[in-house]
Amino acid sequence: MPKLNASATVETLLDAHHAHWAKLRRDLHAHPELRFEEHRTADVVARELESLGYAVLRGLGGTGVVASLPGADPDRGIVLRADLDALPIQEANHFAHASCANGVMHACGHDGHTVMLLGAARVLKQLPQLPGTVHFVFQPGEEGGAGARRMIDDGLFERCPTEAVFGMHNWPGLPSGHFGLRTGPIMAAGSRFRITVTGKGAHAAQPHLGLDPIPLACSMVLQCQTIAARHKDPVDPAVVSVCMFRAGDTDNVIPDSVELRGTIRTLSSTLQQRLQRDIELMCQGLASAYGAQVEVTFFQYYPATINTPTETALCETVIRETFSSERLDNHIPSNMTSEDFGFMLEERPGAYVLIGNATPGAAARSLHHPKYDFNDDIIPVGVRYWVALAQHYFGAV
Ligand SMILES: [Zn+2]
Ligand SMILES: [Zn+2]
């Protein structure tokens, strides 16, 4: 592939390849795959990277794909990360590139993330060599699969020496072409819990012969709200939601047991652990007062996504200098959704930014909505951001 010299040529490349990227994005949208089943998607990514002259590493974390653009110093490197997977949602759009897979849909824009990173791999390859290596990381299983964690466990950072990690997610709440970020937690830590309350079943008309677990479980649900409201500093956000209450099969039998399930979201792992401890203590205390048994289990699925100050400041500079200050909101509020890029940020410093995806004049569909679609107009903006970030990081501007 021919090398280009002037940075002004980046814009030429963006214009020249926009139609190709939009076509590729629509192809991925039409063929969504669920977490760890992204075989076709990984094939498409690998084929595109190979056509650009990259050596491609496959299979990291299951279906992950990695390609590296070597820099002058082999010991220096950064990770730019995109996600590959779709969601178990039936698409409600009827345009030509709507999902061909029944019940599976790219409703979070990972098709767009994948293509923007492929675009960066193309453009950076045609620019003069950077002082350090850029690792393009396409991870599987972001939607509840902790694919980032799997790639790390498979030796991502041993194979790809990395000083810092960078991620990007489209955001329908921001105007297209704008960026949002913040230092510190940008997304929440998430854990799930299951509370199994065991009493003693009985005839509905003879509750004194049993031990009814339902009033006890109701108390636990209410106390969960108290834990979110009263067991922590009010300025430190937390959500405790009981989302499932399963008990009994009919109207004249007191059941033996009740199962509750829910989620805890916080902006720090420390608070996450404290709330878990308090929920466990509350459940044990209430069960003991009632003379019942309780089992509480937690499954920590994602840590908080915490942007480090130096790398966030760098991203701010990149956005201001490449686009404009008007297109940057550097104090966006933290979001209580979770994102597995937090695993990468636990291992390395870095920053996760939001790129506006709102289509002017169109109804803004939220992420995970059955009528959501990625806005192809922002592909060159995302590619430009990745390219400028790599150049700024290594001082090549
Ligand atoms: Zn999502
Ligand atoms: Zn997503």
Automatic annotation (TrEMBL):
One GO molecular-function entry: hydrolase activity
InterPro entries: Amidohydrolase, Bact_exopeptidase_dim_dom, Peptidase_M20, Peptidase_M20_dimer
Keywords assigned: Hydrolase, Manganese, Metal-binding
Domain of life: Bacteria
CDD domains, A to Z: M20_Acy1-like
Peptidase M20 dimerisation domain location: 192-282
Co-factor(s): Mn(2+)
Alphabetical list of Gene3D superfamilies matching this protein: 3.30.70.360, Zn peptidases
Bound cofactor: record note: The Mn(2+) ion enhances activity.
Family: Belongs to the peptidase M20 family.
Protein name in the entry: Amidohydrolase
